[in-house]
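Re-running the complex after MR caught last week's input typo. The corrected sequence lines follow. Everything else is unchanged.
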Amino acid sequence: MLLEQTGFTDVVMSNEIDVFSGSKHESDAKDFDTRGVTVYARKPA
Amino acid sequence: MSAQQVGVARIDRDELRRFISEKYREVATNPELGFHFHTGRPLALMLGYPTELIDRLPTANVASFAGTGNPFLFGDLHPGERVIDVGCGAGLDTLIAAQQVGSSGQVVGVDMTPEMREKTQEGARLMGLANVEVRAGFAEALPVADGFADVIISNGVVNLCPDKRAVFGEMLRVLKPGGRIQIGDILVHKEVPQDAKDDIALWSG
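Corrected-run output:
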């Protein structure tokens, strides 16, 4: 994962959410299986 | 300037920034227009922001919200912490963070779009939050000193930056050792064709 490659640690991801459901962007988002997510990570001490 | 390889895309980065900024200028000034992505209060509720939290914010800041996650899912911020909101947009997360860190803390919102910065600043004024400062800048070149922040929040911004390695490197620079990021964004599970990555019109949906 890019976050770890750039130096972050302790990476945690939330559940994914279908944030484009019902929007005009929905079909494009489905084409690429695009989901919203929240990420936590830490800079090493 | 002609197209150059910028992270995953061969594009003119300045043109991309102008295109995205124009889109979000519309979100800031005319949120009722309707966009290719959800905005406003319904989006915030979809992303798990508590109703009582949203209700404390100025309506105009909520209306132009355009995030893709919820930085506070991983816990509230702590009193006294220094926070950077990368791509603060209309300020929904900035204003929540400013309440959580309190008067002993500080929140710096950074955004490239003037109309969004103005909206965040006005929201802070309306709420009497003197611990909010809004600065012009880009995610790849934050106008913040090394090791400034305890926490970086961001919401729906990294996906708009073709050079994600540069963004994360900049986040590392401005964080204190042991500091953390709590950022909402999108995951794309299927490979995007290179011609789509190189198409500026697709970058902001």
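None of the earlier attempt is carried over here. The longest strand of chain B covers residues 175-188. The radius of gyration of chain B is 16 Å.
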